[in-house]
Amino acid sequence: MRKLIWLAFAYSATTGTAHAADRPSVAPPPAWVLPAPIPAPLPGTEGLAATVLLADQQTRLTDAGDARYIETAVWIGSSQGLQAGALALAWDPALDTL
């Protein structure tokens, strides 16, 4: 079984008053994000459990605060690679917006 796991999220942290969200919101990338194509797996990586195809991070700095966009794509080559799909994010809903 081979699968592609794709994750993208935008993270905003303002320097002023925090605007908390009860839960993360799902939306298209902000207009300032430059799209990055997801490349095909490299030759010779077929036997690996997991291969990172894309690790893109973009940051926007403004007077109103900072915003970060992170996109990751992982190719899962075997059942052992499914652990690569486990995701842990540091998020404080009192201060951050996903």
Task: Report what the structure shows.
This protein has 98 residues and is an all-beta fold. It has a domain at 1-15 and 45-83. It is 0% helix and 40% strand. The protein contains no helices and four strands. The protein has strands at residues 3-14, 50-62, 65-76, 96-97. The protein has a four-stranded antiparallel beta sheet, with no helix packed on it. Strand 2 (50-62) and strand 3 (65-76) form a beta hairpin. It is globular. The chain starts with a strand and ends with a strand. The model is unreliable at 13-18 (pLDDT under 50).
Computed Rg: 16 Å
Q: What structural class should be given to the helix and strand makeup?
A: mainly beta
What's the total count of β strands? Answer: 4
Strand-and-helix sequence, N→C? EEEE
Strand numbers in spatial order across the main sheet:
2-3-1-4
The percentage helix is under 10%
Strand content: 35-45%
Summarize model confidence as the mean pLDDT. Answer: 76
Main sheet makeup: 4 strands, antiparallel
* General shape: globular
**Contiguous helical run count:** 0
* Poorly predicted segments: 13-18
Distance between the termini: 31 Å
